[in-house]
Amino acid sequence: MGIAGMTALLRTEGITADHKRIQRLCRDVGLRVVRKAKKRSRVGTSTVPALRLRTDHPDYVWTLDFCFDETTNLKTLKVLGVVDEFTKEALALEVDRSITADHTV
């Protein structure tokens, strides 16, 4: 719960305090309050076309997806999955510690 949530909760209980006082009290007591990240505004125009490719037969649109996992000795594994959008069939699964752009292509 953030500062704004705490302030609203205290107001419903009948305690009037502004957000700066709540922030100072939380800091003095040692509570960690997670700040809500500001939304970033988009600047410029998109390079991606607004209309996505639609598939009407197999082998027309494929999607790539990277997944990451760790082994017991904390080494990273990358998994590259290639899926046909029409049949939802996994065409390929590549597992490696490092998958470069050339390897992906």
Outline, from the CA principal axes? Answer: elongated
Task: Indicate the structural class.
Answer: alpha+beta
Number of domains: 2
The assembly state of the depicted protein chains is: single chain
Strand residue content: 15-25%
Number of helices: 3
Which stretches are low in confidence, meaning pLDDT under 50 for 5 or more residues running? Answer: none
Task: Tell me the major beta sheet.
Answer: 3 strands, antiparallel
Radius of gyration: 24 Å
Helix-residue proportion: 10-25%
Which helices and strands appear, and what pairs or packs with what?
Blueprint: H1 3-12, H2 19-29, E1 62-70, E2 76-84, E3 90-96, H3 101-104
Antiparallel strand pairs: 1-2, 2-3
Give short descriptive properties of this protein:
elongated, alpha+beta, three-stranded antiparallel sheet
What does this structure look like?
The protein is built from three helices and three strands. It is α+β, with helices and mostly antiparallel strands. The longest helix is centred in the first third of the chain and has 11 residues. It is elongated, with a radius of gyration of 24 Å. The mean pLDDT is 85.
Summarize the structure.
With 105 residues, this protein is α+β, with helices and mostly antiparallel strands. The protein has two domains: 1-36, no CATH class; 62-104, no CATH class.
